UniProtKB/TrEMBL annotation, chains A, B:
Similarity-based family: Belongs to the DSD1 family.
InterPro entries: Ala_racemase_N (IPR001608), D-amino_acid_metab_enzyme (IPR051466), D-ser_dehydrat-like_dom (IPR026956), D-ser_dehydrat-like_sf (IPR042208), PLP-binding_barrel (IPR029066)
Source species taxonomy: Bacteria, Bacillati, Chloroflexota, Ktedonobacteria, Ktedonobacterales
Source organism, top-level taxon: Bacteria
Lyase as UniProt keyword: yes
PANTHER family on file: D-SERINE DEHYDRATASE, ZGC:162816-RELATED
Domain D-serine dehydratase-like: 256-363
SMART domains: D-ser_dehydrat
Keywords noted in UniProt: Lyase
Pfam families referenced in this protein's UniProt entry, alphabetically: Ala_racemase_N, D-ser_dehydrat
Organism: Dictyobacter formicarum
Identification of the protein by name: Alanine racemase
Length: 386, 386
């Protein structure tokens, strides 16, 4: 077994396993290529130009962003094809126009006539046509117009007349709560069918709909046929997390992101190991609490990434984590003396990563090949904020 | 009613009401002065030198820090009296020594003989005496030795022989789950009594215990007699939050921190208002879920801070919040057109603030006096990370 040597950073810090990252990226790329559509990775999880640069062979490809701060940073890095996939607030349109004036083909998202009118007006005033997607609600998760809502056509007409109707976009957010292959397959086919029906509705009325965009990590993997879809968005797949493992779209061994913490105490009478990583290090996200296996604030592994049997981070305060054996397990609390470093695998990579401004990148696979300890040899910055 | 004009920042952003901050700071200062002990504010909530500078009249006073990054930043700002109130990991001792070499009287915390030996060894090697507190467990919340554990004396002896036994420190973490004045009074008296008993146990054995440190915002306010205690630590009181209001130590109107978000959509059939502020803007902390009134991800107010009747942020994804009327309320969803800005009052100020690298500071009170709209006229940086 390789022994991970970590030079420099104090705990807690976020480690990104470069080899797992590349494997995860390749797996999705090959899957989407087989389905014959465009992959437009969502960079909301990684929020890192360095991670995104692993996604594309040579030239920057199409991406999805969750904030205009991401759009700015990726524009600086040469990315020119973006969807800002959060419903547009009208006051953000000058920022969108500024990015477009830089040569970035940034498209916006909306689900109301009010927003469409704002985009049309901003387009007219700027003597341009801002491209916009109509958000379609495929599963009641969040925003979007229903596919049979007459507002879909009304919005399409406003955009087509004074802005640019780029297409339709939907997100099967409820697929995160699926946990059987059958439920995931249903979610994926529903996401596709709703998006294609919406596109057809627009086209039947003589409106353009060049792009039909769907996506979530679970449905992307569950999809076997994407007829009528032109592109897939997904982002979590680069890192994966315990929620995705619970959904069944990855194994624990695929998780590329973890947090390194140090043991700072023991409460033997309670079966507790105390660490210097609390919710500030992991986030308060407890996504697996809704799943069949509640992983607490995260699973605990050694520095090589090997899980300790049934050891989870069960409690968190700001700068303290408490590690315990799962309820109902017969496993014995491992001996982890004060000063021992362990890794916490996160419930929700998007939330855990957001607690950091950088990743410490390890190249574990190459280290194994070279029979030398893995070391941190890169620090990759995140684009936080708005 | 004053109308808050916010110039500049895109939503979401964190607003700090300077007048409420000063009121909260003054209230705690006067309360602790009446009790006749030292106030050592915990800066883990605010993590801001600018906020801390509101705590002290002229010279920087004693503070409590939760990370060595905070210690570095506050040392840079002239603060020289600090307790790092997280159990010390031995690998952090060189950093502690470096701060002490800069003239910062930084004391550490520990609850095991292993840690005491590490502190003693580091002291010997550096030909100095690192001051350390023994952490006492007063309510089973987290770390600390029990007051009747012989380890207390053993740890004290190790520190006294080769480092510096500065005193005992306890934190009534369970007081956050109290919700009656009676329960809070019991928690406060227990915290005091346990700390004083521990100090007496050390002194009976001929060991020094110059400092007896207790603290949490709830117990600080519940305390009516602190005989034997020398100092109180508390941090949340500067901002307050919905959990503290639920505990009963503040009113909703005292909350100094909030998040400004923009309405980006409506789902009338579901009774939803959608905003551009998700858990990235508020954190996933749902501390009030355990209280009598579950505030969701936060209460919703207008920009002046006046709550909308029974409107809460009930759901969150990364960059989307959903506002709904509380279950069982007869209130009507307010009319908030797309583009409307509202404020979200947080469950847990420590966690919500941690989603930001800065505060936008408003001086609402002075604006009211001047009969002009309040504006943001300061940006105060936070010290995030470790």
């Amino acid at each position: 077994m390789n022994s991970l040597t970590i030079v420099g950073p104090d705990t807690p810090f976020a480690v990104l396993d470069h080899a797992k990252l590349l494997q995860n990226i390749l797996r999705m790329r090959q899957h989407i290529d087989r389905l014959g559509v465009t992959l437009r990775p969502h960079i909301k999880t990684a929020k890192s130009v360095d991670v995104a640069n692993c996604l594309f062979d040579d030239v920057p490809g199409p991406i999805t962003v969750s904030t205009l701060a991401e759009a700015d940073a990726f524009a600086d890095a040469g990315y020119t094809d973006m969807i800002y996939a959060v419903g547009i607030a009208p006051h953000k349109l000058p920022h969108v126009l500024a990015l477009r004036a830089r040569g970035v083909d940034l498209a916006v998202l909306l689900d109301s006539q009010e927003q469409a009118e704002a985009v049309a007006q901003a387009s007219c005033e700027a003597r341009t046509r801002i491209p916009a997607f109509v958000e379609i609600d495929c599963d009641g998760h969040r925003g979007g117009v229903l596919v049979d809502d007459p507002a879909l056509i009304d919005i399409g007409r406003i955009l087509d007349s004074a802005a640019e109707l780029r297409g339709v976009l939907t997100h099967a957010g409820e697929s995160y709560f699926a946990d059987t292959p059958e439920a995931l397959a249903v979610a994926a086919e529903n996401e596709r069918a709703v998006a294609v029906t919406a596109a057809n509705a627009l086209q039947t009325m003589g409106l353009p709909c060049p792009v039909v965009s769907v996506g979530s990590t679970p449905t992307a993997y569950a999809a076997v046929d994407l007829t009528g879809v032109t592109e897939v968005r997904a982002g979590n797949y680069m890192f994966f997390d315990l929620v995705m493992a619970g959904v069944g779209v990855c194994d624990i061994d695929n998780l590329a992101l973890s947090v390194v913490v140090t043991v700072i105490g023991h409460r033997e009478s309670r079966g507790w190991i105390v660490t210097d990583g609390g919710w500030m290090a992991t986030s308060s996200d407890r996504g697996t609490a809704r799943q069949r296996v509640d992983q607490g604030y995260g699973m605990v592994t050694d520095l090589d990434g090997v899980p300790y049997t049934d050891l989870i981070m069960s409690h968190a305060s700001q700068e303290h984590g408490i590690l315990t054996i799962r309820p109902d397990s017969a496993a014995v609390l491992p001996s982890l003396p004060i000063g021992t470093r362990v890794r916490i695998l996160p419930n929700h990579a998007c939330a855990t990563a957001a607690q950091y401004d950088k990743y410490h990148v390890i190249h574990l696979t190459s280290a194994i090949e070279d029979a030398r300890p893995a070391t941190i040899d890169a620090i990759w910055r995140r684009v936080n904020g708005w």
